[in-house]
Design brief:
It contains 11 helices and no strands. The chain is mostly helical.
Length: about 325
């Protein structure tokens, strides 16, 4: 195992712990507080559970690639595992856009029924893109193995001539990479950049409101602008290498493609660990609820331990009294 592989594998362990702990805490806190369950918090909760599963799958994929196991996940399967998180991030950007720029439309339309429709569209898109990629990947690998067996069994020069079906499969694979890049990354990135840039412009350059601002309003504007810029940069930084992985796998050589796969998976795991911090832990109210939940769990465990000790002490004293 080289130095780069060892470093990436070592960094993935604390990122996995942060991903599991942070996203699980977000999901539990939102589920426990019924009064918080609006469209925004429900989308954040589903994003947390999606990142929770994606982080676990990504960690095991890092281990399989670093150890050079034979059974590895294909690049198409790995990318489609993160599509739910990508689409939920784009849905959150749209929700914030309508909540800030079109509040009356948001109040009238933002219902849980609409959220369930959006989630249904997201999961249908993920299933369609993932199933298509799995089928194409399987056909390409089967065709490659058949050609390899034909080249071994037949020693004539005509055995090395490729027929029309492998060329068609390679064309379909290249076309699918383009479709996955457009519908999985370019469109969600465009939605996030458009929504957050319009919100920032509205916050700073809205001519309908009074521009004579005080310190508190300027502070809230800077905080909102910083948040949306961090969200956009984090999304582009962590997901661009992931969607470039099928291209590198198709056109790159073996060792460089493996190193790129490890690097892209580490960034994807970093994005899954950063989402709870960016979306929820910045909120003081959520931090208070998280600390309260952890405190209740610790106090409950201490009460159980103390009750067990008291029960054991009572049993011991009862035995002593019987002996006397």
């Amino acid at each position: 195992m080289d130095v780069l592989t060892l470093v990436i594998t070592g960094l993935s362990i604390p990122l996995l712990v942060c991903t599991i702990f942070g996203n699980f805490l977000v999901g539990v806190v939102v589920k426990r507080n019924k009064k918080w369950q609006n469209v925004n918090t429900c989308l954040i909760s589903y994003l947390a559970w999606s990142d929770f599963g994606f982080g676990i799958v990504t960690f095991f994929e890092i281990l399989s690639v670093s150890q050079k196991f034979v059974t590895q996940m294909s690049s198409f399967q790995f990318v489609t595992n993160g599509l739910a998180s990508v689409y939920l991030l784009a849905a959150l950007a749209l929700e914030r856009y309508f909540a800030i720029l079109k509040p009356f439309v948001h109040m009238r339309r933002a219902r849980k029924s609409l959220m369930w429709k959006v989630l249904l569209v997201i999961w249908i898109s993920v299933v369609v893109l993932g199933t298509t990629g799995t089928i194409i990947e399987g056909e390409v690998s089967q065709s490659a193995s058949e050609n390899a067996m034909a080249n071994v069994t037949c020693h004539s020069p005509l055995a090395n001539v490729t027929e029309g079906s492998p060329t068609l499969l390679e064309t379909l694979s290249t076309a699918y990479i383009f479709v996955l890049l457009v519908f999985g990354f370019v469109l969600p990135s465009g939605v996030m950049i458009f929504c957050y840039s319009r919100v920032i412009y509205h916050v700073w350059f809205n001519t309908e409101e009074d521009r004579a601002t005080n310190h508190a309003l300027l502070k809230s504007r800077r905080k909102l602008t910083k948040l949306f810029i961090i969200l956009t940069i984090t999304f582009l930084f962590t997901w661009t290498p992931t969607f470039g992985r099928p291209i590198v796998t198709l056109f790159g050589n073996g060792e460089n493609a493996r190193k790129y796969q490890l690097f892209s998976m580490l960034l994807a795991l970093l994005g899954a660990a950063a989402n709870p911090v960016i979306y929820t832990f910045r909120c003081p109210r959520f931090r208070q609820e998280g600390v309260k939940l952890l405190t209740c769990c610790c106090c409950k465990r201490k009460r159980q331990v103390n009750s067990n000790r008291i029960f054991a002490a009572d049993r011991f004293s009862l035995k002593e009294t019987k002996k006397t």
